[in-house]
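Exercise 7. Given the encoded structure of a 337-residue chain, write a plausible sequence.
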């Protein structure tokens, strides 16, 4: 059985911010997107909530190249981006974008990047980015902002404590879940360290569940009113026990780890690829533990950004129909309640 790749955050580790830029192909949470294709970034009108028309918030990106022979090197670089609307309370809007490049491309050398190499930015292709969110700016707003909303946010002297336009930035570190219930001493030591760090972060964060000290109780509350007999939730708890701070589970063509028995999609609820018609397959999920790190404003729980599992489904062929550089994929939200 193939191992599941886990994503974790070490909030206390020093991260060179230059390594979270496009040329280093980072996996990260928050900050501004480190776009892969720098010339064909989506227009601002495509990056707004379809309901409230407010710009979406960048949640995370995952570097996920595919080196299988059948792809003929077309996914040598491949990045998945996730955005969400923080203003919609019910039926929240999500946007998942996929971008990929071959080893020979217009932007990056085939040699590994070095810190002292020249920075590569979209401005080299005359693409200006919003100074607030890092999405494509528009001529209408002096090529400085993507929207009037972000322009007003930038110049407003009023409190913006409850407005979320950009999240704290963290590097996503890789770990592996091999499905084993037994660990050697070194692994146990590392897991204990990870658990200690997670508990410390839990106590210090300002996120939705910041005041809950016990991770099981937190997840139990998020699952749905604490049904301790739910077999899905028991499996969820047991599976994450060795690395409780995991925020990402990457298992392309595998199956999600659902947090409870409610709101699990049927196959006909996952739409096929919009471009080639292939049946989308699961690729990775975002775990509720990420909420501890987002520092969201304290507002009533029913209005906060909260979820059980965010499962991302993508085209199994990772198609590039019509040479679209950013193709939309699908996200299924398993609700917290």
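Solution.
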């Amino acid at each position: 059985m193939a191992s599941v790749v886990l994503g974790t955050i070490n909030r206390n580790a020093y991260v060179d911010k230059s390594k979270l830029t496009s040329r280093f192909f980072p996996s990260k949470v928050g900050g501004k997107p480190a776009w892969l294709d720098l010339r064909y970034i989506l227009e601002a009108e495509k990056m707004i909530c379809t309901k409230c028309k407010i710009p979406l918030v960048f949640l995370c990106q995952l570097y996920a190249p595919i080196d299988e022979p059948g792809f003929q090197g077309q996914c040598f670089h491949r990045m998945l981006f996730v955005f969400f609307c923080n203003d919609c309370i019910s039926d929240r809007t999500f946007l998942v974008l996929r971008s990929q490049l071959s080893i020979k491309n217009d932007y990056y050398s085939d040699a590994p990047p070095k810190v002292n190499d020249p920075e590569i930015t979209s401005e080299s292709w005359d693409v200006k980015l919003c100074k607030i969110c890092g999405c494509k700016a528009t001529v209408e707003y002096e090529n400085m902002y993507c929207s009037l909303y972000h322009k007003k946010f930038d110049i407003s002297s009023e409190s913006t404590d409850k407005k979320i336009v950009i999240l704290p930035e963290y590097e996503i570190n890789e770990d592996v879940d091999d499905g084993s219930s037994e660990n050697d001493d070194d692994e146990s030591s590392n897991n204990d360290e990870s658990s200690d760090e997670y508990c410390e972060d839990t106590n210090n964060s300002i996120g939705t569940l910041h005041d809950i000290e016990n991770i099981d109780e937190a997840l139990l509350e998020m699952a749905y009113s604490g049904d301790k007999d739910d077999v899905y939730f028991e499996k969820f708890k047991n599976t994450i026990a060795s690395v409780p701070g995991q925020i990402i589970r990457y298992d392309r063509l595998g199956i999600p780890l659902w947090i409870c028995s409610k709101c699990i999609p049927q196959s006909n609820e996952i739409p096929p690829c919009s471009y080639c018609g292939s049946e989308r397959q699961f690729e990775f999920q975002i775990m509720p533990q990420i909420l501890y790190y987002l520092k969201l404003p304290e507002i009533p729980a029913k209005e906060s950004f909260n979820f059980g599992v965010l499962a991302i489904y993508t085209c199994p062929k990772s198609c590039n129909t019509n040479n679209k550089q950013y193709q939309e994929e699908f996200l299924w939200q398993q609700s917290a309640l």
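Remark. Helices lie at 148-155, 185-204, 215-224, 231-240. Students should compare their own answers with the one above.
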